[in-house]
């Protein structure tokens, strides 16, 4: 008998070779599935899409909650060469319409909870399905029920299968739709799924053992990459409908979770649980917890390592492509690093003129794919060209490579504050402020200053039990001054009830910053 590491891997092959292996062990709807059942459900949706006229390279958009259907539709579209577009369910009706128009979607699948935002759907999306029964009263015109859509369709593999891919819309900061697409590869879905398994194994996702926890938004590319990596090595998914700090710990203990993907804000919220609550749960099953999407404050990650042990991995990159991995032991040797380049990638640090900078010099981070993979922004050749220098591209970060080739990210280039000609990186200041017990969230921004150009301001969301006051503002400034150089510290502190973050955990700083620059007659 072959060792599990020698088995054929990937969802489709596991469904054949190990049909009774659990694929979904928890979901908000209460559904659980084996790999055979999951593959059959995906085949049925794929056959229905084909029967309704969709062909290779067409786009299917869906707005679905964290649950089994999000997995089924993703698998179904990619086994017949379609592009899937996972819509962030927090978007407004106008945002949905704008993205649907820009993507050229041919079909749209929507959960009943979100139908009220789809009364205006572009004509191109002629096929419209309500996923989840029953469809509510007042359902927008043109939508068909899931049962009618699937009627008579077999749960066997569709003919002429070929691998599809995503069209992903970056969270961005401009408000303009930015669809990222890659060339479709003509390859068998089984081979493509095996490639996802290789991706998972790079993070020590072990074949045919363990459970992967899904606790972030399943529309997000990072979450998808890792739950697909887990499924394709044969790990079951435990899907949470939304993140709750203690429920996450409960789920880890309940299922003996071995792997997970999270974002730093989740770490912050779990660390804020009372010690007696944190100590209630057995988390010893954890092997690989990966985070990305936003900078993780240094102390937060140190505290998580102290609590969970050396199981926390980090990956850096963007929707445009991955760049580095920081394994736990490497991060402990070099705290703050986001790791070294993955196979098939080089990282370059360039100045504003495109010249290479030496080790430890801060500059623009460029990622070069040397494995032949590429991307473009849909229908925007100018934007595509603007982020590229030759075959290398940037996602807008500044950082440096140390003498050993480890990458350190300082901040987003657009978030950098220049005060009196000195560069200040807000992420460093935010990392310090987040360790203060009264701070629930924080955005550090530059605001207009007639003498210095910009002045450092902290906009703070307090924890529930804290009250805003001038005395607390002074305390927070002093807290920073005890830990950072004076020029980096906030000159003033404002308090807000809630700071804007997207579901990937990224601060939407444009919204915070614009309020302070509106009267200045300039943006920075």
**Can you give the mean pLDDT?**
91
Widest sheet, order of strands: 2-1-11-10-12-13-14-15-16
Calculate the terminal CA-CA distance, rounded to whole Å.
65 Å
The residue ranges in which pLDDT falls below 50 over 5 or more consecutive positions are 1-5
Rg, Å, rounded = 23 Å
Share of helical residues:
25-40%
The major β-sheet equals: 9 strands, mixed
CATH fold call of one domain: Rossmann fold
Strand content: 15-25%
Which architecture of one domain does the CATH hierarchy give at level 2? 3-Layer(aba) Sandwich
Shape: globular
Name of the CATH class of one domain: Alpha Beta
Structural class: alpha/beta
Instruction: Enumerate how many helices there are, as a single number.
Output: 16
Number of strands: 28
Task: Describe the overall structure.
- With 524 residues, this protein is of the alpha/beta class.
- Among the domains are: 36-185, 3-Layer(aba) Sandwich (Rossmann fold), CATH 3.40.50.980; 339-415, Luciferase, Domain 3 (Luciferase, domain 3, Roll); 419-517, GMP Synthetase, Chain A, domain 3 (2-Layer Sandwich).
- It is built from 16 helices and 28 strands.
- A 9-stranded mixed beta sheet has the order 2-1-11-10-12-13-14-15-16, sandwiched between helices. Strands 7-6-5-3-4-8-9-19 form an 8-stranded mixed beta sheet, with helices on both faces.
- β3, α3 and β4 (83-86) form a beta-alpha-beta unit.
- α2 (35-51) packs across α3 (68-78), α6 (189-201) packs across α7 (221-231) and α9 packs across α11 (298-308).
- The longest helix has 17 residues, at 35-51.
- The N and C termini lie far apart (65 Å).
- Residues 1-5 have low confidence and may be disordered.
- Residues 428-506 form the AMP-binding enzyme C-terminal domain.
- Belongs to the ATP-dependent AMP-binding enzyme family.
- Residues 152-180 are annotated as: Disordered.
């Amino acid at each position: 008998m072959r060792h599990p590491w020698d088995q054929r891997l990937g969802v489709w092959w596991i469904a054949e070779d190990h049909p009774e292996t659990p694929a979904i062990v928890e979901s908000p709807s209460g559904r659980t599935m084996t790999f055979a059942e999951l593959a059959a459900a995906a085949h049925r949706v794929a056959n229905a899409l084909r029967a309704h006229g969709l062909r290779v390279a067409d786009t299917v958009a869906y707005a679905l909650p964290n649950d089994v259907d999000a997995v089924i539709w993703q698998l179904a579209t990619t086994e017949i060469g379609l592009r899937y577009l996972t819509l962030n369910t927090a978007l407004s009706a106008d945002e949905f319409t704008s993205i649907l128009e820009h993507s050229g979607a041919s079909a749209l699948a929507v959960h009943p909870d979100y139908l009220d935002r789809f009364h205006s759907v572009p004509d191109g999306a002629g096929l419209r399905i309500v996923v989840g029964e029953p469809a509510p009263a007042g359902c927008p015109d043109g939508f068909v029920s899931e049962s009618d859509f699937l009627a008579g369709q077999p749960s066997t593999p569709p003919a002429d299968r070929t691998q599809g891919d995503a069209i992903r819309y970056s969270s961005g900061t401009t408000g303009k739709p930015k669809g990222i697409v890659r060339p479709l590869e003509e390859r068998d879905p089984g081979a493509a799924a095996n490639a996802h398994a290789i991706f998972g194994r790079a993070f020590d996702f072990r074949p045919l053992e363990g459970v992967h926890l899904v606790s972030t938004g399943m529309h997000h590319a990072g979450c998808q990459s890792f739950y697909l990596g887990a499924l394709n090595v044969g790990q079951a998914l435990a899907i949470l409908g939304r993140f709750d700090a203690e429920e996450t710990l409960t789920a880890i203990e309940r299922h003996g979770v071995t792997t997970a993907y999270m974002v730093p804000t989740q770490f912050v919220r779990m660390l804020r649980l009372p010690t007696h609550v944190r100590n209630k749960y057995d988390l010893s099953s954890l092997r690989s917890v990966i985070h990305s999407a936003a900078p993780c404050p240094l102390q937060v990650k140190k505290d998580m390592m102290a609590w969970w042990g050396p199981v926390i991995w980090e990956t850096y990159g963007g929707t445009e492509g991955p760049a580095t991995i920081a394994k736990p032991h490497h991060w402990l040797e070099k705290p703050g690093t986001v790791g070294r380049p993955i196979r098939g990638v080089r990282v370059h640090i360039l100045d504003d003129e495109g010249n290479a900078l030496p080790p430890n010099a801060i500059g623009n981070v460029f990622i070069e794919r040397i494995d032949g993979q590429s991307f473009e922004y849909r229908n925007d050749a100018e934007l595509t060209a603007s982020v590229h220098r030759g075959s290398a591209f940037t996602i807008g970060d500044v950082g440096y490579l140390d003498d050993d080739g480890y990458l350190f990210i300082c901040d987003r280039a657009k978030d950098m504050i220049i005060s009196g000609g000195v560069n200040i990186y807000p992420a460093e200041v935010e990392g310090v402020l987040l360790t203060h017990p009264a701070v629930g969230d924080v955005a550090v921004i530059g605001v207009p200053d007639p003498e210095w150009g910009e002045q450092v301001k902290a906009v703070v969301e307090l924890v529930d039990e804290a009250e805003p006051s001038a005395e607390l503002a002074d305390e927070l400034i002093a807290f920073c001054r005890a830990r950072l150089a004076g020029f980096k510290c906030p000159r003033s502190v404002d308090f807000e009830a809630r700071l804007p973050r997207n579901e990937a955990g990224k601060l939407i700083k444009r919204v915070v910053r614009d309020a302070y620059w509106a009267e200045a007659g300039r943006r920075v």
